[in-house]
Amino acid sequence: MKSPINYVVERKTRASQTGMLIALLGSALLVSLPFWAEASLLRFLVEAMCYLVLAQMWNLLAGYGGLISIGQQAFVGIGAYGLFLAANHLGINPFISIFLGGLIAAIIAVPTAAVVFRLKGGYFAVGTWVVAEVYRLGASNITLLGGGSGQSLTAMRGIPKATRESVTFWIAVAITIGFIGLMYWLLRSRFGMALTAIRDSEAASESQGINVNKVKFYVFILAAFGTGLVGALYYLNALRISPTAAFDLNWVVFPIFIVVIGGIGTIEGPIIGTLVFFGMRSLLADYGSWYLMVLGLVAIVIMMKWPKGIWGTIQQRYNLRFFPVQRRVVLTDQSLKPDSTMPAAEPLSKPL
């Protein structure tokens, strides 16, 4: 009679433990910044965190859900206008109105999904862009919201500048950490396993009883909520809005660039991509249109040389995972291993 095979299922790595420590220290540093940093640095970091969350939301859609959307600017604009509507016209505290903006974006995403989910592949991508243009034109014709010229966030006039900047920054930190943590938890859950299965093969997923359309619908709503929060947060920081700016195509172009160069289908990728994007923007800001041309060239080179992006390539080559979402079966009986010199934690099978 064969002896039972002893094994354990691992869900963390040494890198993830190190990453957790770095994340805690980084979070503590960010929370302390309003007490000693300059206002210009706070505004810059709020913008960077906005793009990081946008990139994570687009990565959730495309990298895990297989939903290539080029119309996410619709929810940026809807979330931002939701903030202005709640704060300026309904008298709700502007900071609370940020979350109302995200909620409004999620609600609007329900009928939007009912329309765009009828389309597949490239038609879905184009369809989301068309819907975003429809929302932009609609906002341009609503007099209450300032029409085509937009309006200022007058609800912030009674709030001291230092308080406004500090609270806005802390909300940005909370949203950024919250959504990265939410994605990590989500992708490690049963829902995340279903989402990963759908990304690998929709047909195989359906054969295993996964409701593909339902999972994608939930992902679309969640991404709309996160994107709406970012829109509200950004324009709370900017204090003024217009339809042209709120529904600008760059709200989806830059996050796509961030995800592509960082590594699609990873949590770490958008973080690396955001650092690269803002580093290049700081270096090339004085070169006008050359800045955008260089961004495009960098994206092309990386896609050709490293199709999985910077972090995707590093992860594949060195098996380095700060946010491991896979489960690994590890044998604990050394005698069953092909090489007895192998360390006990060496995985003998691919991630489940």
From TrEMBL:
<feature type="transmembrane region" description="Helical">
    <location>
        <begin position="217"/>
        <end position="237"/>
    </location>
</feature>
<protein>
    <submittedName>
        <fullName>Amino acid/amide ABC transporter membrane protein 2 (HAAT family)</fullName>
    </submittedName>
</protein>
<keyword id="KW-0472">Membrane</keyword>
<dbReference type="InterPro" id="IPR043428">
    <property type="entry name" value="LivM-like"/>
</dbReference>
<keyword id="KW-1003">Cell membrane</keyword>
<dbReference type="GO" id="GO:0015658">
    <property type="term" value="F:branched-chain amino acid transmembrane transporter activity"/>
</dbReference>
<dbReference type="GO" id="GO:0005886">
    <property type="term" value="C:plasma membrane"/>
</dbReference>
<keyword id="KW-0812">Transmembrane</keyword>
<dbReference type="Pfam" id="PF02653">
    <property type="entry name" value="BPD_transp_2"/>
</dbReference>
<feature type="transmembrane region" description="Helical">
    <location>
        <begin position="20"/>
        <end position="37"/>
    </location>
</feature>
<feature type="transmembrane region" description="Helical">
    <location>
        <begin position="249"/>
        <end position="278"/>
    </location>
</feature>
<feature type="transmembrane region" description="Helical">
    <location>
        <begin position="167"/>
        <end position="187"/>
    </location>
</feature>
<feature type="transmembrane region" description="Helical">
    <location>
        <begin position="57"/>
        <end position="83"/>
    </location>
</feature>
<feature type="transmembrane region" description="Helical">
    <location>
        <begin position="95"/>
        <end position="117"/>
    </location>
</feature>
<feature type="transmembrane region" description="Helical">
    <location>
        <begin position="290"/>
        <end position="307"/>
    </location>
</feature>
<dbReference type="InterPro" id="IPR001851">
    <property type="entry name" value="ABC_transp_permease"/>
</dbReference>
<keyword id="KW-1133">Transmembrane helix</keyword>
